[in-house]
Amino acid sequence: MDKLICPKFEKAMGLLSQRWTGLILYQLLSGPQRFCTIESSVGVSGRVLSERLKDLENEGIIKREVFPETPVRIEYSLTDKGLALEPLMKELEKWSQNWLEA
Amino acid sequence: MDKLICPKFEKAMGLLSQRWTGLILYQLLSGPQRFCTIESSVGVSGRVLSERLKDLENEGIIKREVFPETPVRIEYSLTDKGLALEPLMKELEKWSQNWLEA
DNA sequence: TAAACTTACTTACATAATGTAACTAACTAA
DNA sequence: TTAGTTAGTTACATTATGTAAGTAAGTTTA
């Protein structure tokens, strides 16, 4: 009777169910951003943000680029795989506007 | 510089970011179901399932109905608010099919 | 020259969330 | 009377997260 749910779907939901991951990806939809920007706009601690960014990079959903300026600039951005989440995010925007109160 | 994200969107993402919540709702898209069915198909423990169902009921996303049969049957089903998540779930299905490996 | 500043982290520790397994309530069947 | 059912709850161990301080590499300031 177990496991009727598609493993790929389960994995996808598992990714988004990690606390902060969804908001981090949503934030990156508006363009490449650096660590401290994500940290303050999303409201996630550096400790967890660091963990999430590594996971997302390992999943191929975001990429990390180093610009050796002064001080060093490191930008995180969505890969094609990450950008492909946009329609889903738009649906969540719609749902939240239609069904949630402020 | 903080908090550029819409509070409604944040709340919606907060709901789906609770572990198991997304899968529970996805499972209920296929129709009303009882506690033990959700428990085994989703793979969540009774302890957490109980907690999630209460939260979702409080949010008006699911409803709980008691049928005084023998033994008692209790069914959980989506409200209109819950059903409205279907397009989002379809997008996640698509994404997972297109971008994830088994 | 040394103290202070910047970003991008990491570490240590406390608290909160989840997993596991046993237990309860209400009722029926054997 | 004993056992079985569903729908939970409880106690306790483990894991995840929050908080705050610390680190590394480099630059600017005093």
Automatic annotation (TrEMBL), chains A, B:
What is the annotated signal peptide range for this record?
A: none
Q: Where is the HTH hxlR-type domain?
A: 6-102
- Where exactly are the transmembrane stretches of this chain? none
Q: What are the GO MF terms of this UniProt record?
A: DNA binding
Xref: PROSITE patterns: HTH_HXLR
Enumerate the UniProt keywords alphabetically.
DNA-binding, Transcription, Transcription regulation
Which Pfam families does the entry mention?
A: HxlR
Can the keyword Plastid be found in this entry's annotation?
no
Q: What name appears for this protein in its UniProt entry? A: HxlR family transcriptional regulator
Q: Which organism is it from?
A: Pseudobacillus wudalianchiensis
